[in-house]
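Q: Hi! New to this. If I give you a protein sequence and the SMILES for flavin-adenine dinucleotide, can you show me the bound structure?
A: Yes, paste them in.
Q: Okay, here:
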Amino acid sequence: MAPKQPAKRKAQTTITKHTPHPFHQESEENGIVLRKFYPHEMSNARARAYNSDELPRPIELLNAALAGTAADRKKVQVKDAVVHWFKMDLRTGDNQALFLASEKAREAGVPLIGLYIVSPQDFEAHLTAPIRVDFMLRSLEVLKADLEALDIPLWIETVDKRARVPERIMELLTEWRAGHIFANMEYEVDELRREAKLVRLYAEKGIAMEVVHDTCVVPPGQLTTGTGRQYAVYSPWFRSWVRHVHENQELLELAERPGMNPPSARERYSSLFECDVPHAPEGKTLSEEEAKVFHALWPAGEHEAMKRLAKFCEDAVGGYGRNRDLPSTPGTSNLSVHFASGTLSARTAVRTARDSNKTKKLDGGNEGIQTWISEVAWRDFYKHVLVHWPYVCMNKPFKPEYSNISWSYDASHFSSWTEGRTGFPIVDAAMRQLRGMGWMHNRCRMIVASFLAKDLLLDWRMGERFFMEHLIDGDFASNNGGWGFAASVGVDPQPYFRIFNPLLQSEKFDPDGEYIRKWVPELKGVVGKAIHDPYGRGEGDRARKAGYPEAIVQHKGAREKALAD
Ligand SMILES: Cc1cc2nc3c(=O)[nH]c(=O)nc-3n(C[C@H](O)[C@H](O)[C@H](O)COP(=O)(O)OP(=O)(O)OC[C@H]3O[C@@H](n4cnc5c(N)ncnc54)[C@H](O)[C@@H]3O)c2cc1C
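A: Thanks. Here is the predicted structure of the protein with flavin-adenine dinucleotide bound:
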């Protein structure tokens, strides 16, 4: 795909250097900005400067680097090997950059080498949950075996300081005498900026770095409103997404797996084949007990993803529209973990679902299939949002002025929420599911996020952070988008007065309390509708005796305060 040229900039106006919003210090003191890795929270003025095209978006920097080096990169000799740098694309099937790397190697008759860099500081800076690190490392085992079957080595190396990653990759490319390195694009700010630098740096050293779109069905930047703007509302964006895919059927073409390496590769790279998948770095390890539970719950790797997808499309997708909101029912695909680590591509998912329908139209035929495809599209939507409004990746809300909200940082409320001891059974069940599985049902994610922001009035970014630190499917764009939606500070504006009532949500989506009883065993003995509100519905004594807490806030009072603030 040809990179877009950077947009013409308006004349640079004075962007206030650092004008903190009124509550900037308080939010920082409460761990919103990770000062070990990042500067102070940016000013609202600076965030707005991205919107008025005064500051280049990180993707524009990368596109400019690709465009600016295109002629030089074309001239680069292949030399002895071609390298594919695996990141969040831990699969051999339908992997765009891997396919291109493999083609380059095949045409030149040289071997392909896979590279994966474990960067503990990136895990730390990006709040990657230990369960997610563990899933990626287990997926790497599968990937390594799949590549080995093709005589392709996968070299995995831990680089302690993330600033050293570019240099270390350069050393490896030199050692392997590789002229080309391929990678799929990641849309978070750190990664786009890093890749922009790498493309230029490597080009200066005579190495071609190719960075291509892969993770979305429709690459960011291709869908605009009638006036040429980025959509900020999902429904019209989705109609445009569907139209675009219908008009560009190649978007659902799947990339072939890489071919076999030349037979000589085994002997030549014997030391690379010998490398082991490392253990999780310090601070990101699981206890033995956790590993046992999580490994059984979440088998890793591409084959598992394909099995799960096939089974879902065979058995459950038809009923998805009916069941997807009931957390006690296995009505959703549980594939988010695979999308997040790239053990499954969104193209493969949408195409498989489409092929199990009677029509090729993404918005026709079986209702369950249509709904599911529209959910997978949310993932694209939030990545498009992140690319266009990059400051959402820098702790700012979509509308910068929403930084001016005076949130609470009440530590006791926050720990009741994280521990699942708020006295709201549906909230507590959900938070315990998160700890117990490293995953939470989507309906419950919305309930607990709304509860944190609108009942406890806590800074939504504390919840966003806690989710990233615990989710096996933690994905910056989807998590940030979900939190923005629930706290009414994101795109697809949900009016602030739309406040989830946890009791009504509980009655509607867990009518028999099955989900609550599973995750809050103290309430097992509570019968009937009291399960949703034991203290308010005559089962207070039983709940108290079992050690279940009373509600830490009253929804009605909190709702009024949220509306008033
Ligand atoms: C506050 C909040 C935080 C969230 N954080 C994350 C996150 O870190 N990572 C993540 O992958 N999803 C996140 N989501 C979206 C959603 O909850 C999960 O994708 C979903 O629960 C995963 O389960 P599943 O694979 O069974 O989904 P299914 O219902 O089977 O949906 C299929 C796929 O569609 C995508 N999808 C579905 N709903 C959404 C959505 N609302 N936003 C974006 N993509 C969606 C996911 O990739 C999902 O795997 C969040 C939602 C909220 C409200």
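A: The CA atoms of residues 132 and 472 lie 4 Å apart. Let me know if you'd like me to explain how to read the tokens.
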